[in-house]
Each structure stands twice: as C-alpha cells, then as structure tokens.
Amino acid sequence: MHKLFLSLGFLCLCNLSLAQELSETDKQVLLGKIEVMENDVLDFNYKNQKAAATAFKAAMQSETKAFQFYLDCRERIDQEAKKQKGSDLREDMKKLRESTTNEEKRALRHQLVWLVASMEAAANPDARETSTQKLVDGLKNIIDDAQYLDRKTVTGRLKQNPFSSEFAKAYLVDHIKPDNWPSSPLDYDGLFKNLIIKGLVESGKYNEARSEWQNRLQAEQRLIEEFDVEPETDKFGKESVELDNFLQKNLPDLRWQMEKELFTAGDTRQASVALFSILQTYPKHDNYLKWVNWFKGVLSPESEASE
Questions:
Q1: Domain assignment present for 31
Q2: Based on the structure, what is the number of domains in the chain?
Q3: Closest C-alpha to 157, from 196, 199, 114, 117
Q4: What is d(CA 75, CA 89) in angstroms, rounded to the nearest whole number?
Q5: How large is the angle between the packed helices 251-265 and 288-299, nearest 10 degrees?
C-alpha cells in the first residue's frame, strides 16, 4: 500500500512538471466516469435506505420486536471490532439483554417511529406535511406513554438524534439530515415552530399559529409533570423542582416569544393584550426589563430600545 502511494505521488510530481490542460475529449471522458460512480452511489443509497425503512417499520410494530432489532443492530455494529480483538459477542449481548430496562425498551420503539417518518421526509420532500403529522402523533404517544418511561431514558434516548442511534449506524443511514427538521423526538421548537407555526404565521393564520404554540407549550409541560415527582437537590444543597422552574421561568418566556412573534408578524392588537398581561403577571422574571425595553420600543419606535 505504501509503495502504491509513493508511486502515485511520484506520478503526480511528474505530471506537474509536464502540466498540460485537459482536452475537451478528456473532460467528457472524466465526466462520464464521474457520472457512473455517482449513479452507483445513488443506487446504493436508494437500495440501502429502502432496506432500512422496511426493517425499521417491521421492528417498530411492538416493543419486543424493537428491542430484538436493537440487539441485532448493536451486534452488527460491534461485530467487526470484536473479530479483530478475537472476543466473543455472545457474552456482551447477554449482558446488554439483561441490563436494558423496560423503560429503555419502550423508548426504542418511539425512536424507530421517528426515524421512519424522518426518512420518508428526506426521500420525498412533497410528503413532509404527512411526515410532520407523524412526528406530532409520535410526540403525543410519547407523552401518553410517559408513565412507563423515566427521566434517564427520556434524556438519554428520546432527546438524542435518532440518526446517531444504533439503528441508523447499523443500516448506514446516519448521514441523512432532512432540511429544517427536528433533531429528536422531543425537539419541541424544531417540530412546532419550524415545521408548523412558521408557515401559519407567514400565511397570516394567527389564531391557528397561536393554537399550535399552545400545543407546543402543553406538550413540554405535560412531560415535565410526569417526571416532577419529588424535588432534586443540586450540588449546593438547594432544592429545585423542574416543574416549578418551567412554570415560573421557561413558560412565561416561551409565551412572550409566541406573542412577540405574532405581534411582529402583524397581529398587534391581540398580541399586545397578551404581552401586557405577561408583564403584569411576572414582574420578577429574569427577562422582565428586556421584555419592557422591547415592548416600549415597538410602541414608541422613536425611543431607543434594545432586544
């Protein structure tokens, strides 16, 4: 191999010393060869993604199938490395089977549902609306399923990008990145703001946009409520409750973002009422002065206001 590299390097040096421009005939030959290689790659990707989608759809039919498929994918990924080390995969797979919790098994199925919908969107941009609805339905199912999940599973797997999962890696589809697509099953803004709300606002459908904003806020709140069973203690010994933080800090800020966006888009009257109400309700919020400065600025454009 080293000799080959040296030969190629020597050849390149010789060619540089005798540099000549490509003839039109050479260009056409080279373009033809590149096109053949490109078609081969596209054909491989198409067949590979089709096989992956078929396998994912079959595995997501049940929790049991999803878990067995996960084990198969893990084995598929590790097989080559284990061969090189001369070790046996069976013991590792046994340990993995025994250590995987029921909550993790359940999350695997949700991850597969997201993958299938996202691959459909990547393969057929015209079907993005249908795929988006599948993600919305998938999020609702996760929330309805929250009693069977746990905080660790949600954070570790359902907030992970499924295209970096064992499923995607085993079937060589981890390079897929649909444009302007959510990064995970629990990417609320990526789903609602980018795929749903943005289009409604641009079309002047403010009431529908506000309704979808509420769906986005309720989805995050419901999931937090499921896991907010008891206070957590931080490293300073102070108790903090995730739900309380969300209700007092994150939720008001998200509501402000919603109404600010609608105000800027043109729904000034209704948004103004809502924005003023937020200022009345949360005078101790960390962003209060920032909110006030922006609101005063848009109501009195001649005054200096910062975002």
A1: no
A2: 2
A3: 114
A4: 7
A5: 10
> Residues 168, 205: one domain?
no
Which residue's structure tokens are 């030969």? 7
CA distance 260 to 254: 10
Residues 158 and 165: their CA atoms lie apart, in Å, by 10
CA neighbor of 156 nearest in space, from 165, 167, 147: 165
Total-model pTM: 0.80
Task: Indicate the burial class of 286 (C-beta count within 10 angstroms; 0-12, 13-18, 19 or more).
Answer: exposed
Same domain, 273 and 143: no
Structure tokens at 133: 């609805």
Tens of pLDDT, residue by residue over 48-101, are 788 999 999 999 999 999 999 999 999 888 876 666 454 567 788 888 889 999
What is the extent of the structural domain holding 267? 189-228+242-307
Is residue 228 left, alpha or beta, with left meaning phi > 0 and alpha meaning psi from -120 to 50?
A: beta
Q: Which tens digits make up the pLDDT trace of 155-201?
A: 889 999 999 999 999 999 998 888 899 999 999 999 999 999 999 99
Of 52, 86, 93, nearest to 72 (Cα)? Answer: 93
Answer yes or no: is 1 within a domain: no
Whether 18 is covered by a domain: the verdict is no
* Complete DSSP assignment for 54-71: HHHHHHTT-HHHHHHHHH
Q: Residues 157, 201: one domain?
A: no
Q: Residues 56, 80: one domain?
A: yes
Cα(219)–Cα(208) distance, rounded to whole angstroms? 17
> For residues 142-176, b (16+ Cβ closer than 10 Å) or e, as one string?
bbeebeebbbebbeebbebbbbebbbbebbebbeb
